[in-house]
Amino acid sequence: MPTEQDTKSEDAIWRYVPDPAYWDELQASDGAIRPHWQHFTQALREMGRKEFERRWLTAQQMVRNHSITYNVYGDAQGTERLWPLDPIPLIIPDAEWTQLEQAIAQRATLLNQILNDCYGPQRLLHEQKLPPELVFANPNFLRPCHGIPVPGDIRLHFYAVDLARSADGLWWVIADRTQVPSGAGYALENRLAAGRTLSNLFSQHSVRPLTNFFAAQRHGLFSLAGGNRRMVLLTPGPYNETYFEHSYLAKTFSIPLVEGPDLTVRDQRVYLKTLEGLEQVDLIFRRQDDDYCDPLELRGDSLLGVPGLLGAVRAGNVVIANALGSGLIETPAHRAFLPGLCRKLLGEELRLPSVATWWCGQPYERRFVLEHLHELIIKPTFPGFGRNPIFGDRLSAAERAELARKIELRPENYIAQELVSLSTAPVWTEDGLSSRHIMMRAYATWDGERYAVMPGGMTRVSNSTTSLIVSMQHGGGSKDTWVLGRPEPSQFARIAFDPEESVQPHISGDLPSRVADNLFWLGRYTERVEALIRLLRSVLPALAGEEEISHDISLDATVRLLVGYQYLPKSVLTAPIGEQLHQLEAMLTGMIYDLAGMSSLGWNLKQIRRSAWPLKERLSSDTWRVLQQLESEASRPSNPFVQKRPASLQIHLDQAITSLSAFAGLLSDSTTRGHGWRFLEIGRRLERALQMIELLRHGMTLGSSSRSSLDLVLQTADSSITYRSRYLTALRPNYVLDLLLIDETNPHAIGFQLASLVELTQRLPRQEAGDRLSAERRLALKAQTAVRLANTQDFLQMPVLAQFLDTLRRDLFDLSEALTGRYLTHIMPSRLTPV
């Protein structure tokens, strides 16, 4: 039974003291809990700290298991971070949200009409309702997009707005996001984590669900795509800040996730590169900036776009959401003119005010800004990388004078905004509840008829009590947003549950070429890492100075093999034994623990992760969890005095090979036996054959074919037991070659890999009529035939073996190039979908 001291301690945990200088979401100025928070705070007290912390640990584990991440640019510790989620939601009452919902929908409608005018008749410019400097000088105004019609006059299909509450309790617009608004997928993940962690509280509060919003968004996108409904989600790639969200939304909407090189334009039509050929695309839901989308007409140095994309849009053969050029109205300078534009275009008063904004290109506004520099925030008219806002109250008199001079010199380049005192809300810390400044990002989507608004959104919090910077890139966090009240019935709700309506019609190519390419290289890197681990484990006993009873592997054979791989310099062959052991120790330690070296275990494991990350939506949670464990073990720092011990190195390698085997097994078992699985297997078999060729070249042609060398080769090839059970005799070179080169029943033999490659290439799609024997199948058959006809007695002459292995190696490289050219990059002729 809790003591009085425990009760006081528990009360202290929930005691919340916000800063009285700011509006607080939970607590009024007189200390009273606001009505819509009372039930929640009471439930927290009844739950108690221990139970709440237990649930919160469960939510954090969910974030790790689902690999919910975001990328931090320019971070020396690596870009990827786990998504920071606070367990305490932001709660908004029904009546307040209803007003916000109407205001957000109105604002989206207004901005869409402004875009239509600027890229159409430009009446607002002719009638001087909008300064031409804010359009024609804006780098986000894409002149090639002027005059391009859009279906239904909808250019803004998806819109986000950053809202903050000032000290008087009113909501203000801080920023409009019209180009590629981010965060909606994270908002849904926040809801899933919070809903499962606080399920009883969630159900008791009648929180409006987010499902209807995403169903409406999907319906709106599919309606734009037309009858064929071939839609893709275009991402800049895995290194983008919110790549997790791109993958998550593609999986939610059941559409392919593609990068620029996955698409091509032919005859002013956009095609997706698939294994079957080129499939036409009707709509692109883009998640990359406007000017990067087409290097032909927009930004010429872009490597992320699709050359000719704008021409396909101009011809009306593809729809892009949001329309190219929609970033035009993200500039804060436009906000000064929105009230008048709303009255003119919509005949209504603007319901949701922007933070007070002055554009210095107007004389009266410029005078006001210069007189109040010490009170305002000065920003560039057109934001860009490295162009940060300037807080006037932090400048010295001399600095303010210099800023005033710059404004008078180029006034059109500056705007000024009032400093908004962001409201605070409770967050959970180790010491209990603490206040942090917040900003809420709300979302609107075109559902085919009107703008639907997400009930809530993604609330972001500052990283400290004193910081007013609310940004994930600066260490901020996020929290779920609960809008109270029963949801209105949605005509799109069934889309989320009716598979016949929600799933895009099957594209015959089975999967995009980029997915096949990543699976291909995932298979190759998996085998490459396994071969490296087995090599290191085989040579490790020589470092201990004690030979195993069952093996006869000498230090000389070990050194010769590593010199062949160029892991050790040739000079070590004539060095004293002590020097040989010293260099061997340094080499093994570096190969295992050095993450920077391209031949190291850690570096190659990161390549596995790099190939697997774009496949995240296709990998099972168990597969992904094992991969994370494998990479974590490999990158974990070790005591420099312990890591050099042979026993330590052995344990590390044993753990790595066990985790790698689990990963490879789960990867193979959980992949559907389609073309994707075939490319995964082709990558594995091709790489295993190449690794075995390297082992035979360095183990049997560059050194001696002594018993010790042969034993080392068999040990590295994981075939020692097979040899001893099959050949009841001493180690002989011709028998070793028969087992590792020709045998088609030994899973580690080259012959086995070639037989698998012949079978796998036969099952790949044929892209040309009458193509009875594809180039890749001919190459696989050529290599297999050469091995089957080989006579191991001839290879006892080492130059003959070396020449044979070099020819076989070239054939396998040619096979890899043929597969890449036909299926992965489409540099060979491909079938076009009939128009």
Explained architecture:
The chain is α+β, with helices and mostly antiparallel strands. Helix content is 45%, strand content 13%. Strands 3, 4, 5, 17, 18, 19, 20 and 21 form an 8-stranded mixed sheet that branches. Helix 16 packs antiparallel against helix 19, helix 22 packs antiparallel against helix 26 and helix 22 packs antiparallel against helix 28. The termini are far apart. The C terminus is likely disordered.
Question: What's this entry about, in short?
Answer:
The protein has 835 residues and is of the alpha+beta class.
Mean pLDDT: 83
* Oligomer status: single chain
Beta percentage is 5-15%
Distance between the termini: 76 Å
DSSP helical segment count: 28
Helix content: 40-55%
Weakly predicted, low-confidence segments: 4-9, 494-509, 828-835
Secondary-structure-derived class = alpha+beta
Q: Quick one: how many beta strands?
A: 21
Largest sheet: 8 strands, mixed
> What integer value in Å does the Rg equal?
32 Å
Shape: elongated
Descriptive labels:
835 residues, alpha+beta, eight-stranded mixed beta sheet, four-stranded parallel beta sheet, disordered C terminus
Fold topology:
Blueprint lengths: L3 H11 L20 H13 L1 H17 L3 E3 L8 E3 L2 E8 L1 H25 L4 H4 L6 H4 L21 E8 L5 E7 L6 H14 L1 H6 L6 H15 L5 E4 L8 H11 L3 E2 L4 E4 L2 E6 L2 E4 L2 E4 L22 H6 L4 E3 L16 H9 L10 E3 L3 H9 L4 E5 L9 E2 L5 H13 L4 E5 L5 E6 L2 E15 L4 E3 L4 E4 L15 E7 L15 H4 L10 H32 L10 H10 L12 H17 L7 H12 L8 H15 L10 H24 L5 H26 L6 H10 L3 H7 L6 H10 L7 H13 L12 H14 L9 H27 L11
Parallel strand pairs: 3-21, 6-7, 6-11, 11-12
Antiparallel strand pairs: 1-2, 4-5, 4-18, 8-9, 9-10, 13-16, 14-15, 14-16, 17-18, 18-19, 18-20, 20-21
